[in-house]
Design a protein that fits this description.
The complex is a heterotrimer of chains A (293), B (467) and C (295). With 293 residues, chain A is an alpha/beta fold. Chain A has ten helices and 14 strands. Chain B has five helices and 38 strands. Classes of the chains: A alpha/beta (293), B alpha/beta (467), C mainly alpha (295).
Chain lengths: 293, 467, 295
């Protein structure tokens, strides 16, 4: 489905993506894994052909650089956060993309219905919540029933329930034979959706592996809930993620997955960032695996 | 307006052409048929020329009335003058005369007259070099002829109507199109009334022709409306000169003319409304400009710096790009811009009339920096009608030290424009088409907007049952 | 896209396909036009232009009674000044905000991820804005034509039509320049600043500079004409005057020179210059937009 050879992209002096080559078979599902700034988003933009890059990408044999729009016709793309004209109404935005993709009104309505946005057609894009925007983006991506779906951290703006829905939808799509490529830094998503993981680090493809190899489930893992001051929660989450931990942030505190014998590690990491931990609580075996690297 | 007239004329031409083709089914006859009719007739008889095309050159040597109202067409076949009148008192009316020669040296005309007391009336002249040419033919009447000259380049055209040494003639109600000039040489005591000249070089052109009256003529889209040269004692009354914008482009041009009276004329949208070159030229003579409407011209009044002894009173100078200018350096101060306390209306007058007597309380002194620059650097005229020009004028208003000397002084400017009426039917008013343009412009905008906004609604609601 | 390429990479049957080149442009144009209609600048500019145009038509015809019908020349002259000030400002700023604005809001990326090419997005936006501008002009001119019909009895319908047509051409030429500015500017504020600078240059600086240099360096008429006709605004002005007078004699020796040397080709030369000002910046904008590949 996707063949990429030697993708390289630099912004000024910074090498955002360097020499990434991989192939993705039709029906496959691959996750891009890496910390923020590892080059996941840039790689996705290169694959879509929306930014200029060196190297060659083909989708179904169609060269993305030379025949970009024909290649992109095969792709449904869900960005990290939907950015569409704020003044436009949801219904009219949907019709715009429907016509762009040569899809009729009924199918556009079905796509909206599939993501549960029916009845919101008169709302302006600016008034949509993060979750609704994400679902709109998904609806647009699925409009023309494309064989390949590319998602850039599709659940980053969603709460637990929204995330679950998205993951469920994507699993259905996989079962329907769609090819999936998505960036994520949520191990649970990766495990449940991907059969391959491309680990990116500083723009380079470090490992081409599977979720099972990346997170061997036999290794005992525990989830620790950290109680922090509300203000520092997001900072703490970022700090832990950059230290390679799998983090989950919700209203009840910050959950982090650690090996049984290394429960102090997150606290030390936070201390390095001058973030104080008030209390910790070790939860029962929740299936939130830890990154081994 | 001109275009409508143009369209009408074109339609007429096509009509004539169609008619002509019909006529040509009957074979053309030689002009000798008419010659024979004349020679068989007594002096003074009315000869009704039967319908038909008569080919050749006709010379009339007997005082008869040639009436072509049954549909007579005289065709010169492109050689020489079509009708030559050599006897006094001849009348030629309702004839269609066409196809004179084209060779400028012989000056071939549709109708040439060398005789007194001739009447040329209601003829339709086309495809000729000169239209009606009078030589030493006093007391002629030239009335209601339609003259369409061949549309050659202006230098090679002939004159629509030319009078040469022909005193006391009446030229009335003729319509001339695409000629060189309607020109009067050495002819005195003429009355020129209600003629329309368009698309020509000079609408009315006087050379050494004194003591005439020009009334209610309509001169439009020519290079110059009326050009008087070396001609004295002429009165221009209630004429309209509009859109004369050729290289000279004067509504009225005066060169070395004494005792000219110009009253109640409308000079509209010409390059120059009135151009004065050394008139009056003789000591003791005066020029009078009274109650004229001088509006929308690039320059309202343009005069050579030596111009003097003209009186301007009760004229309306409205929205001319430059109200008054000198041709070259100098001022117009040797002329008078008010008579008995009545000056002129200037639409750019910035003064006020506190006592309400209709006369502005401060003098009118136009001081245009750009105008002054133009006098020194004529090339800069390229930049008129541009925001840069406005910027320059604005600067000079803000900085008094930049203000140039005024070109003229009107001591009693009028506070409101005088009412100036022309007794002339407004031609080609296109209210309808302009309204249609307005409506269609708005309709286009509305249409495009509606077309773009209306798109199929997404979702259910086939009958608007969703609130 | 040549047919050979299409054949060498057949799109599998049943796969979704990209819209046609023109179809994609049309979608974006329509989207852009709708956005323009809803935007403040469009409403503001339309109102300002209409009020000014009507004011000029009205004022220039006062005090001439039944002779107003001959006064269209003067009204046109007033309109000419107004158009040369307002229309380039409208078009340049509208163009400058287009791509840069999308880029700044982050909407450009999402647009480009659709099955359309960069040139389609740019051309679509261009045509949408062009139609919006022309609509705006139609409203302003339409209402002032109504005023002319009412006050002056309306002569010169053809002249007025020519004026409208040439103004539309000027607008799309300036829009092209605005798009070029927009493509090379990273931010909307920069693009707008550059657009204002270009506007000032075209409207005032170049004319005043040319006036000064023609006096100081004693430029020949042909040099002045050549330099002046580079400026699209001067070109527009000359084209309007030619369309109404059939010659440029009213513009003094330089105009007379142009009329004499170019003769009947003059209007075409002027109009082609305006068309060149439309096509060239737009072409460069498309080239840079596709080449640079930034979002």
């Amino acid at each position: 489905m996707i063949h990429s050879a030697n993708i390289t992209k630099r912004f000024g002096k910074m090498q955002a993506v360097s020499d990434v080559s991989f192939a993705l078979e039709a029906g496959g599902s691959v996750a891009l894994w890496g910390s923020n700034g590892a080059g996941k988003t840039t790689l996705i933009r290169c694959l879509l052909g929306v930014i200029r890059h060196r190297g060659r990408v083909t989708m179904n044999g169609i060269d993305v650089r030379r025949r970009g729009r024909h290649a992109r016709a095969l792709v449904g793309y869900v960005p990290q956060e939907l950015a569409f004209h704020d003044d436009a109404r949801l219904g009219s935005a949907m019709m715009f993309f429907a016509k762009l993709r040569g899809v009729d009104r009924a199918q556009a309505a079905r796509a909206l219905d599939a993501v549960g946005l029916t009845g919101h057609e008169r709302k302006r894009v600016r008034d949509l919540s993060g979750g609704m925007k994400q679902r709109l983006a998904l609806a647009v991506a699925l409009l023309s029933d494309p064989p390949l779906i590319i998602l850039d951290e599709p659940t980053s703006n969603l709460d637990a329930a929204g995330r679950g829905e998205v993951v469920l939808t994507l699993q259905q799509l996989r079962e329907a034979g769609k090819t999936l490529l998505f960036a994520s830094h949520r191990p649970d998503e990766v495990i449940s959706l991907a059969d391959r993981v491309l680990v990116l680090e500083r723009g380079q493809l470090e490992r081409d592996t599977t979720p099972a190899e990346l997170w061997p489930t036999e290794k005992p893992v525990q989830v620790v809930r950290l109680y922090l001051s509300m203000a520092s929660e997001t900072d703490a989450a970022d700090a832990l993620r950059s230290a390679g931990h799998a983090v989950h942030l919700n209203g009840h505190g910050l959950c982090v997955a650690v090996a049984r014998d290394r429960k102090a590690e997150p606290i030390i990491a936070l201390a390095r960032h001058h973030i104080e931990v008030r209390d910790i609580e070790v939860l029962d075996d929740v299936r939130l695996p830890e990154a081994s690297q | 307006m001109a275009r409508t007239l143009g369209t009408i004329l074109t339609a007429m031409l096509i009509w004539t052409a169609v008619e002509t083709r019909c006529e040509q089914h009957s074979d053309p006859k030689p002009i000798a048929v008419i010659t024979e009719m004349i020679s068989n007739a007594d002096a003074g008889t009315i000869i009704r020329v039967p319908a038909g095309v008569y080919e050749g050159n006709l010379v009339v040597r007997k005082p008869v009335v040639l009436d072509g109202s049954d549909g007579a067409v005289l065709d010169g076949l492109g050689r020489g003058t079509v009708i030559e009148v050599l006897a006094d008192g001849v009348v030629i009316r309702h004839c269609t005369v066409r196809n004179s020669g084209l060779d400028v040296t012989g000056e071939p005309a549709a109708i040439r007259v060398i005789a007194a007391d001739v009447v040329i009336e209601s003829n339709n002249i086309s495809e000729s070099l000169f239209g009606i040419d009078l030589r030493e033919s006093p007391n002629a009447i030239i009335r209601s002829n339609k003259i369409e000259c061949i549309d050659l380049e202006p230098g090679r055209r002939g004159d629509g109507i030319r009078l040469w040494w022909s005193h006391g003639c009446l030229v009335e109600g003729n319509v001339v199109h695409n000629s060189r000039d309607m020109v009067f040489w050495y002819s005195e005591d003429l009355r020129i009334r209600g003629n329309t000249v368009m698309g020509s070089r000079y609408g009315l052109h006087f050379m050494y022709s004194h003591g005439s009256v020009l009334e209610q003529n309509d001169l439009l889209n020519n290079s110059v409306g009326v050009y008087l040269m070396y001609s004295n004692g002429i009165t221009l009354r209630e004429n309209r000169m509009s859109n004369n914008r050729g290289a000279s482009g004067y509504g009225i041009g005066l060169k070395d003319c004494d005792d000219i009276t110009i009253t109640g004329n409308a000079l509209l949208a010409n390059r120059v409304g009135v151009y004065i070159d050394n008139s009056p030229s003789s000591v003791g003579s005066k020029g009078l400009f009274e109650s004229n409407l001088i509006a929308f011209n690039e320059i309202g009044l343009l005069a050579t710096p030596n111009t003097h002894d003209n009186v301007f009173t009760n004229n309306a100078f409205i929205e001319n790009e430059e109200p008054a200018a000198t041709h070259g350096r100098g001022r117009l101060v040797n002329n008078t811009f008010a008579r008995e306390g009545v000056g002129n209306y200037w639409s750019d007058y910035a003064g006020f009339d506190l006592d309400g007597n209709g006369i502005g309380d401060v003098v009118y002194e136009p001081q245009s920096l750009f105008g002054a620059m133009l006098a020194n650097e004529p090339n800069l005229r390229l930049f008129v009608h541009s925001p840069a020009q406005r910027a320059i004028e604005f600067t000079s208003r803000a900085l008094p030290e930049l203000r140039p000397q005024s070109t003229l002084v009107d001591p009693s400017p009028l506070a409101s424009p005088p009412e100036i009426r022309l007794d002339m039917a407004a031609k080609g008013r296109q209210v309808g088409s302009m309204l249609m343009l307005a409506v269609s412009m708005l309709a286009i905008a509305a249409g495009v907007i509606v077309y773009t906004i209306v798109e199929p609604r997404l979702g259910a609601a086939p009958r608007g049952d969703r609130s | 896209m040549s047919s050979a390429q299409l054949q060498s990479h057949p799109i599998p049957i049943g796969m979704p396909t990209a819209p046609s080149f023109v179809g994609g442009i049309a979608r974006f144009a329509r989207r852009e036009f709708r956005d323009a209609l809803a935007s403040k600048w469009f409403i503001l500019y339309t109102m300002a232009f209409t009020v000014l145009a009507v004011g000029v038509s009205f004022l220039s015809l006062s005090g001439v009674g039944s002779h107003g019908f001959a006064g269209f020349g003067r009204t046109a002259a007033g309109l000419l000044n107004l158009i040369m000030l307002v229309v380039p400002l409208m078009a340049l700023t509208a163009g400058a905000g287009s791509i840069a604005g999308e880029r700044e809001r982050g909407t450009l990326l999402y647009m480009l991820s659709q099955p359309v090419s960069r040139s389609q997005v740019l051309l679509g936006k261009y045509f949408g804005l062009a139609v919006a501008l022309i609509c705006s002009l139609c409203i302003g001119f339409g209402i002032s034509a109504g005023v002319l019909a009412w006050r002056a009895g309306g002569a010169g319908v053809f002249d007025f039509l020519m004026l409208i047509g040439l103004t539309a051409l000027l607008a799309i030429a300036m829009l092209s320049v605005g798009f070029l500015i927009s493509v090379v500017s990273r931010r909307t504020s920069v693009a707008t600043g550059v657009a204002l600078f270009v506007w000032l240059t075209l409207v005032f600086v170049s004319d005043l500079g040319l006036m000064a240099s023609s006096v100081i360096f004693k430029l020949h008429v042909q040099e002045i004409f050549g330099l002046a006709s580079i400026n699209p605004l001067q070109c527009f002005k000359m084209a309007v005057i030619v369309s109404m007078n059939a010659s440029l004699d009213v513009l003094g020796p330089v105009g007379a020179y142009a009329s004499q040397t170019l003769g009947s080709a003059l209007p075409w030369v002027l109009v082609s210059t305006l068309i060149a000002w439309t096509i060239a910046p737009l072409g460069v904008a498309i080239f840079l937009f596709t080449r640079r590949g930034t979002v």
